[in-house]
Amino acid sequence: MYHYQTQNIIDQEVDFILCFLFEYETPQQKRKSFELAHALLQQLDIASHYLLFSLVKERLPRRAKLLFAAEDYSGKKEVIEEVMQHWLGRNHPNTQLKS
Which of 33, 59, 60, 89 gives 65 a disulfide partner, CB atoms 3.0 to 4.6 angstroms apart? Predict the structure, then answer.
């Protein structure tokens, strides 16, 4: 599994979220790690969120990068949550989580 360039414990949480978003796992594995990834996203402080946003932006294709960059802080967080929920599929009970 690829690990991103992170240095401290908070960054390990960011690393877990990045791996959830960008690494391939079976749907069963994604379901198992969703709760933790979503909880970590909610617990990050503002500096860690901006670190996450910059690392997510680096991994996106050009057009998606432009759209992501145009979002404000809450928009970027919502986009990440929507992608996380997408991994669960439409019929999973957690797809309507509230922030």
Answer: 60
Q: How many helices (H) and strands (E) does the chain have?
A: 5, 0
**Looking at this protein, which amino acid is placed at residue 82?**
E
Which residue type is seen at 2?
Y
Rounded CA separation 56/83 (Å): 11
- Other beta carbons less than 10 A from residue 62's beta carbon: 7
pLDDT, tens digit (0-9, with 9 covering 90-100), for 31-83:
899 999 999 999 999 989 999 999 999 999 999 999 999 999 999 999 999 99
Among residues 32, 30, 35, 7, the alpha carbon closest in space to that of 19 is found at: 30
pTM of the model: 0.76
